[in-house]
């Protein structure tokens, strides 16, 4: 267990150092170059925040980011941050790209250490330009409130298995090569520009120590891990965590090589980089004082990019809810063939390094690694897998920057795969997530009487129950109190429960419940007035707890389960015309139409919809639904 007291001591030391620098600055005039450098960095950070939030985010995204990274400031700084927040929220609301933020006073982020563990694989294959731009991205993450920690993954440098020496220990040549890879990353962070020659580790060390006033931006740390022979993951011990925390509290990016020191032989072995990442994640997550340090992100920068999806034409999964989707994705990776239309992305990486078979193994390894990492990490921690090219992007659509500011993927996972906005992506956002209960009934089922509490679901986490006699014309095993609370919390209105049950009972076509009633959907079979023998799947209630709206992916998880798993053929719903959520619905529907009374807009989606010859069926169904909320 890492001592929270020792970490607090580092933070106190940081405050003392800051105070000392303020005293010195009062008696010494900074140079023009120093002023210009600091102002450039500050202006760039503010410009980056505004450009992302104005272009792609909502007021809720902006408020969440500001609150998350500004709660441990003194009163003066809080006032500055509050003024800054008002300007950001106003600019997002007005979508004013010309908004000027340069007049704001310098605002320091809070003292809590929010760690982002970043593993980089295949560094030797990267051009100086790409690596330099990755360095820029890492510095931007730091300026926006994260404390990056880099872990070098050496496997790709010489192909799989190169770490296994005859005696099980690292040779001097291997150690030298790993240090060289770490030096390239450090140089990219220290001076992220295009260059033909990168400094040696010795020169890099001199760069870091050349100025007391301007310490280096990155530091290659000596081995902090020990193990007992033979090398096993379970035997790794993080013996010197304070080496990393000292650098982080001084705004230096620690770079860690996967060297582990053998206490018996006094020699080094090369561990799996995934094992090193796990040890860091596990120990930080176990700290008893989360107000001091917390784990925010785990990021893999991998030449192969995110977890591939057949549904997305071999592009990457956008969002993976591991608690629900792990088994399905693993089965897909076990059977997927080499995707021809991805060859241009991965061919150079795969050549002479295992080919398509290694491609699958690497993705399975990454999937399993994140399953383990996010299982021990705080529930708020998210994982990202992306390519070096994407991580190097300097646009506002860089998924690492975008996710930090919005806590969402660049595009929504619930968008139709063949839609214009669902472009092929190479980045996957992963969350430990939540189990999802899905029930389908072709005949229509009932909800239990209200109130009914404490009911345990009798279905497995990801089961889709198709036509089970226990369900069809039976009672769904759900907690009605929690279900009603979810609906009322989401809509902000009181449900007329008995009136609602009288209308839907016996006609419920499907139910989706995410997690502990954090989100859900109720789908009913609605008869077509012109043909009582015909019916349509109608989304009657779609609800997400307010605390989960706009983040955590709950809405995407529920909507995707309902529309892709349960009712891919046809799904109809309506929404009040003035509902601000309608933009979200427009993006996910196949078509929409304002109803004759002008109060409602109807939406539909699916692969077998009837808009070409029987659109009136949809209009009649949506017009006949009785409201279920109290006045």
Q: What is the structure about, briefly put?
A:
With 631 residues, this protein is an alpha/beta fold.
Describe this protein's structure.
Helix 5 (128-143) links the parallel strand 1 (113-121) and strand 2 (147-153). The chain has an 8-stranded mixed beta sheet with strand order 3-6-2-1-9-11-12-10, sandwiched between helices. Strands 14-13-15-16-17 form a 5-stranded mixed beta sheet. A 4-stranded mixed beta sheet has the order 5-4-7-8, with helices on one face. The chain has 631 residues and is α/β, with parallel strands linked by helices. The chain has helices spanning 4-27, 32-56, 59-68, 75-94, 128-143, 155-158, 172-190, 201-209, 241-249, 273-285, 322-335, 343-350, 355-376, 388-391, 399-406, 480-491, 497-504, 554-566, 582-588, 615-624; strands spanning 113-121, 147-153, 218-220, 225-227, 237-238, 253-256, 259-262, 267-270, 293-301, 319-321, 382-386, 428-431, 436-445, 464-466, 508-514, 519-528, 531-544, 571-576, 591-594, 600-605.
């Amino acid at each position: 267990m890492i001592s929270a007291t020792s970490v607090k001591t580092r933070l106190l030391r940081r405050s003392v150092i800051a105070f000392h620098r303020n005293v010195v600055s009062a008696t010494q005039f900074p140079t023009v170059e120093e002023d210009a450098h600091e102002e450039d960095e500050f202006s760039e950070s503010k410009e980056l925040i505004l450009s992302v939030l104005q272009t792609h985010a909502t007021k809720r995204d902006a408020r969440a980011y500001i609150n998350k990274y500004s709660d441990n400031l003194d009163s003066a700084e809080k006032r500055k941050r509050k003024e800054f927040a008002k300007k950001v929220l106003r600019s997002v609301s007005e979508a004013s790209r010309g908004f000027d933020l340069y007049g704001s006073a310098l605002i320091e982020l809070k003292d809590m250490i929010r760690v982002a563990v970043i593993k980089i694989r295949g560094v030797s294959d990267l051009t100086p330009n790409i690596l330099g731009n990755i360095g820029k991205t890492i510095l931007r993450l730091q300026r926006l409130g994260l404390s990056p920690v880099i872990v070098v993954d050496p496997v790709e440098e010489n192909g799989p298995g190169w770490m296994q020496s005859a005696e099980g220990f690292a040779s001097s040549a291997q150690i030298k090569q790993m240090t060289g890879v770490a030096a390239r990353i450090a140089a990219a962070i220290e001076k992220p520009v295009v260059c033909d020659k990168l400094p040696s580790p010795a020169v890099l060390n001199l760069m870091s120590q050349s100025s007391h006033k301007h310490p280096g931006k990155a530091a290659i740390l000596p081995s902090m891990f020990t193990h007992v022979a033979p090398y096993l993951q379970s035997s790794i011990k993080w013996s010197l965590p304070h080496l990393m925390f000292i650098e982080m509290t001084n705004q230096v990016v620690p770079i860690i090589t996967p060297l582990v020191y053998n206490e018996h032989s006094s020699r080094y072995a090369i561990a799996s980089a995934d094992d090193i990442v796990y040890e860091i994640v596990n120990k930080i997550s176990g700290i008893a004082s989360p107000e001091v340090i917390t784990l925010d992100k785990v990021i893999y920068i991998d030449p192969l990019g995110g977890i591939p999806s057949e549904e997305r034409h071999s592009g990457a999964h956008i969002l993976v809810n591991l608690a629900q989707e792990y088994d399905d994705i693993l089965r897909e990776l076990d059977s997927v063939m080499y995707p021809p239309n991805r060859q241009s992305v991965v061919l150079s990486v795969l050549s002479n390094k295992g080919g398509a078979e290694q491609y699958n193994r690497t993705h399975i390894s990454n999937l399993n690694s994140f399953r383990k990492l996010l299982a021990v990490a705080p529930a708020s921690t998210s994982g990202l897998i992306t390519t070096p090219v994407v991580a190097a992007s300097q646009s506002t659509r860089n998924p690492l920057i975008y996710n930090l500011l919005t806590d969402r993927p660049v595009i929504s996972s619930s968008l139709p795969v063949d839609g214009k906005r669902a472009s092929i992506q190479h980045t996957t956002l992963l969350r430990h997530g939540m189990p999802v209960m899905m029930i389908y009934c072709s005949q229509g089922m009932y909800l239990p009487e209200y109130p009914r509490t404490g009911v345990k679901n009798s279905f497995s986490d990801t089961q889709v129950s198709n036509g089970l006699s226990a369900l069809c014309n039976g009672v769904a095993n759900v907690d009605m109190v929690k279900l009603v609370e979810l609906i009322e919390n989401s809509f902000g209105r009181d449900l007329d429960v008995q009136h609602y049950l009288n209308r839907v009972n016996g006609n419920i076509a499907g139910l989706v419940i995410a997690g502990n009633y954090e989100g859900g959907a109720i789908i009913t079979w609605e008869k077509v007035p012109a043909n009582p023998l015909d019916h349509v799947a109608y989304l009657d209630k779609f609800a997400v707890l307010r605390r989960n709206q706009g983040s955590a992916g709950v809405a995407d998880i529920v909507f995707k389960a309902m529309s892709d798993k349960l009712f891919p053929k046809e799904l109809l719903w309506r929404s009040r015309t003035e509902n601000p959520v309608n933009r979200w619905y427009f993006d996910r529907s196949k078509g929409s139409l304002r109803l004759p009374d002008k109060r409602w807009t109807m939406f539909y989606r699916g692969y077998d919809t009837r808009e070409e010859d029987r659109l009136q069926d949809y209009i009649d169904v949506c017009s006949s639904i009785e409201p279920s909320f109290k006045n």
